[in-house]
UniProtKB/TrEMBL annotation:
Organism: Actinomadura miaoliensis
Record Pfam families: Amidase
Family: Belongs to the amidase family.
Segments forming domain Amidase: 48-473
Top-rank taxon: Bacteria
PROSITE patterns documented for this protein: AMIDASES
UniProt name for this protein: Amidase
Database matches in PANTHER family: GLUTAMYL-TRNA(GLN) AMIDOTRANSFERASE SUBUNIT A, MITOCHONDRIAL, TRANSAMIDASE
Amino acid sequence: MSTHVDDAASPNGTAFRAAVPYPVDPAGAGTVTGMAELVRTGALAAREVVDAALARIAELDPELGAFVHVDEDGARERAREIDAMVARGVDPGPLAGVPLGVKELHAVAGWPYAMGSALHADRIAGHTSTLVARAVAAGAIPVGLTASPEFGRASFTASALHGVTRNPWNPALTPGGSSGGSAAAVAAGMVPVATGTDGAGSLRIPASYCGLVGFKGTYGRVPRGPYHRGTAENDHYGVLTRTVRDTARFLDCVCGSDEYDRSSLPAPAEPFETALAGVDLRGLRVAWTPDLGNAPCDPEVAAVVQAAAEAFVAATGARRVPAEVDLEAACGAAFRTLSVPDVHAELRAAPPDRLHAVHATVRRYGDAAAALDADALVDAHETRARLVAALAAAFDRFDLLLTPATQVPAFPAEGPMPTEIAGRPVDHWGALAVTFPFNLSGHPAISVPAGTAGGAPVGLQIVGRRHEDVRVLAAAVAVEGLGLWPPPTPSR
């Protein structure tokens, strides 16, 4: 094993040593796949795994704020069930004994279901998300809920209900959002995997800032049932992990059509984990763009990620081709228009005298929803259609599109989101300009570690054609193999 450690000043003035369990050997117990195989064979008890996870949460979470609810009793009871199955010679499944963090936007029956909002501070979930239920059926052990900004509507993770979530590599900085609690939990080694959502980059941005893998599959790849609320059709479900193979293992356990989600796709004919080995990247046409034609990008981020993109092309035998992608500025307005009804769905039943408890950004969503008219909705859908057509034409010219996963280095943990990038003013959507277009279009996209910028990790985004998820994952495996991101180990 190798060790990569950064010391940073924590908010309380003490030294925080940011070290992440990430064994060089993928069979090690620090990965999802390695841990599950050890538990399945009886070489490692699930109760030991859970006890270690709970101990690390107790040690680190007071400083990081990754978890908003921990179910110690439930996790230990589930671990005992897994160990009993192994003792009887029954295979608990491909996620056997793996501690799982669950983003608080995902329901778990009997657990709090506040979604980061004081409006729902006392709400308890009456159902379990399909994503979580399938992971549990495959042997995973949910240990608690991870933090999200209110209703997932920011790219940093802070809320009046739960406070601020911090980046394990530098607690002064954000782990990103909205799946920032999940990213901080995985990056700090509290759990090896945690669920997330991606409506505008909320898996890829935290993955970028925390040195993780964050994959948004083709729209519908991971089912969103039951009872998913939303009309925008931008939301994608997924997980944050330390390796691409871990992500593939998890996908194989949770993907597949779900009668509760009309957009869900059938499971692929070949499991993702085994399909990765058969992908040949030689000769693929690969395009690089730092800005998708019109998005400002911090020069340091652009330089680090471009070097990773060039190393990927050289190492795989792919062919570099021009990107020639220039997405229209109207995409941001279209995304806003299509998204505001989703927030309205959460706010419309709230008593007027409670709306003061809602963050101003969320209230603005509600105000915008009240002002929507048919022309605005039609314009937004037509803009989306033009985006889909533009990307279809672009993917006739290349097979993979490479960009930065974030346009700026990690910013302060308390926020706000950037209002200026590379000297250019940006609005909310301008700070997400390299991620949200692929939510509108439904293309698969992944962030994989590319190096560091501004004192924290930064990721390379790889985008592929719709339904070519395996190729995107295989390209991310190739980036992992470049050694751009030292695999750190626990040393705190």
